[in-house]
Every structure is written in structure tokens, then in C-alpha cells.
Amino acid sequence: MDGVKVVLSYSGGLDTSVCLKWFREQGAEPYALYLDLGQGESAQDVEAKALRIGAAGAFVRDAREEFAAEYIAPAIKANALYGGKYPLFTALGRPLIAKKLVEAAREVGATHIAHGSTGKGNDQVRFDVTTASIAPDLKVVAPVRDWNMSRPEEIEYAKRHGIPVPVTKESPYSVDANLWGRSIEAGPLEDPDHEPAEDVFELTTAPEAAPDEPEYVEISFEEGLPTALNGEELELAELIGALNAQAGAHGVGRIDMIEDRLVGIKSREIYEAPAALTIIQAHRELESLTLTKDVLRFKAQVEQRYAELTYDGLWFTPLKSALDAFVEETQKTVTGTVRLKLYKGSSTVAGRSAPRALYNKELATYDPNSTFDESAAAGFITLWGLPARQWAAVNGGQTVPH
After folding, report:
1. Superfamily covering domain 5-63+83-175
2. Which of 47, 76, 106, 338 makes an SS bond possible with 282, Cβ 3.0 to 4.6 Å?
3. Does the annotation mark 324 as catalytic?
4. Alpha carbon distances (Å) from 147 to 9, 144, 153, 277
5. Which residues are annotated as a binding site for L-aspartate?
6. Is 94 a catalytic residue?
7. Which CATH class is domain 176-353?
8. Taking the model in full, what pTM does it have?
9. Region class of 143: left (phi > 0), else alpha (psi between -120 and 50), else beta
């Protein structure tokens, strides 16, 4: 790679720090791109570290607002949960990082971009496919995937080259975080029968140690997006940060799941996503109040496919754009407020209201003054049950084999 200009997605962690040094050893001219997606790191420290290790230059950019508005927001509207549990925070961040890698490559005239993904993970697919979708002329390099170095070997490499990394053999966790959540994997967590120790978690209090009194939180939505927390209007990124702290303090947001990776293996994943889980829970509840039955049923199918596309690295694809258009159309009436009760690791819906709610108390009540015409029910049931009666008449009533 003599003289090749390459822009590396740089996090400051073990994999990408080792990659940066490795590129220098190969004679390449590496540039580091650090994107602030709300992971809480000091951007200045990461930039200094990259330059110290050998980067020819470092791009440090704040993308929190863009991440919230263009990636998290549509995922909220789609109730995007992979496997019904994982709110896709890492998967949502990767297409944005890849997009910014391409922009940085254009700035410095690089012919290659690079990432620190392994050959077993999903991120390699997300980076590579996104780049192919928006900049097919650029080549993608993945040193960690290519050299097949084990994690302990990477730690030794880092020590040998004086690279400071926050991972040790005693604390071997691999952590990824952004505004929407935090993932923890590797080490003892690879055993699916191993209960995570408390040192794994940062965003959430242990439910046993959470406050003994419940706390109520109100999330207000306008056309499918949260706009206010407890009556205070906030930008989406701010609201997520505040709710992460509030729900996390009550132990809400822990996920322990066996996940089907895109590459075909099952993995054990530990996630923390207090704001993501509570917002999606509230959003779904508000939709149940404001959308018709057939829209809700069809949207549930769309949501599953939407989550799969996001997980599989197909964010910038025609099908994803088409699903976005459908989801956006469904959100025009999803405005209102949902009240949640936070207590000892659980979030429970305590109330919901909407100016365009389809719920009608006068129809639903069992009060004698109900406006529902019960006399129409018998005729309705006769027609509804007609196919069942016709089947029974033709087949002698034998609908279930003995």
C-alpha cells in the first residue's frame, strides 16, 4: 500500500488504533475520521491519539444532530427493533459513518476507505455495502478482517507499539456506543449461560439498586416523533440524552439476547438502550390509539423488514426508500402524549391521549347510554360466520381431523 491515501473510521479503541499503526507500517498515508454520534468520548483526546499513533491527518466531526434527524428519527417512526429487541443503534450509525468516510476521502483525494470490523461481524457488511451504494469507485480495506489477528494478539501488538488502549486481558470487553444505545460483547459474555457482571453496564442502574419509588415520565409526539419530555420541548438528540439518564436510573433498558448475525452465526449480545426502548414503547402505544387496525397490521410487517434492511446494511437502497415513504404516510395522525411508569427495571404504560384518537368512549363503554348499536351485531355475525357454516354444511361439520 505504498503511498496509498486511506481514510480510516477511527474510534480510538483497540481495533482501529492497531489498524492506524498497521497502515503506517505498510507505507500507506492514513487519515483518521472520528464521528461524534453521542458516544461520550472526548473528541480532542481521540484526535490527539490518532495523530500520535501516526495519522497523516484527523477529521473530528460532530454528527449528533444529523444522526438523530436522519437516522434515529425514521427508525422511531418504523419502531425498528431487530429480532423484536435490538433498537439497531450500531446499525443505524454505520451508514452515516460510511457516508462521512466518503466525504473525507473526496477532501484529501484518497482512493481507499477503511474500517476496523472483523470477518465475523455485521459492520463489515454495512460499511462495504454502503460504500458500494454511494461511492463504488472507492476501495474498502478491512485490516482486522484480513490479518485474522485474535483479540489477545491485538492487545499484545498494541503494547509492543506503545499504543494506549482501554482493553486489557483482565477486562476484554468490546464496547460500542452512540446516542441511541450501547453494546458490550466479547470475553466472558461469549458464554450465553454467563450472567453479565455489573461492571458491564454504564447507562443503567441494576434493577435491585434502582429507587424504591416509581417515577412517571411523559413523552409527547408530533407526527410520530418525540418532541417533549415531561412537558418540556426538546430537540430529539437532547430528549434522548435526558431520557437515557431518567430511564436508566430506574434500571430500564437492558437487553440480553441471542442474535442472528447477517454472516450466518448466532451471537450473544448485551445492549443498553433506555431511551430507545421507552420511546419505541410509547410510540407503539400512541399508534395503537391513532391508526386503524389494517394499517397497524400491515405496518407490523413493514417494521420487521425495515429492521432487517437496516441490520443488513441496506440503508441506501430502493426498498428502504420505499418503506420510508409508507411509514412516513402512516405518521400524519400520530400526535399525542404517552405516560410511562418507570420502576425497578420495567417501563409500563400508565396512560395515553391523542387529539385524533380513534378510541371513542361512547362506543366502547358498557354504560346503557352507549352509542354502539348492539341490535346490528346479530346480522353482522351471521354474515361473518357464513364461510364457516358453508364449510360445515359441505363437509359434515368435520373441520378438525381426529
Report:
1. HUPs (3.40.50.620)
2. 338
3. no
4. 18, 6, 11, 37
5. 118, 122-123
6. yes
7. alpha beta
8. 0.91
9. alpha
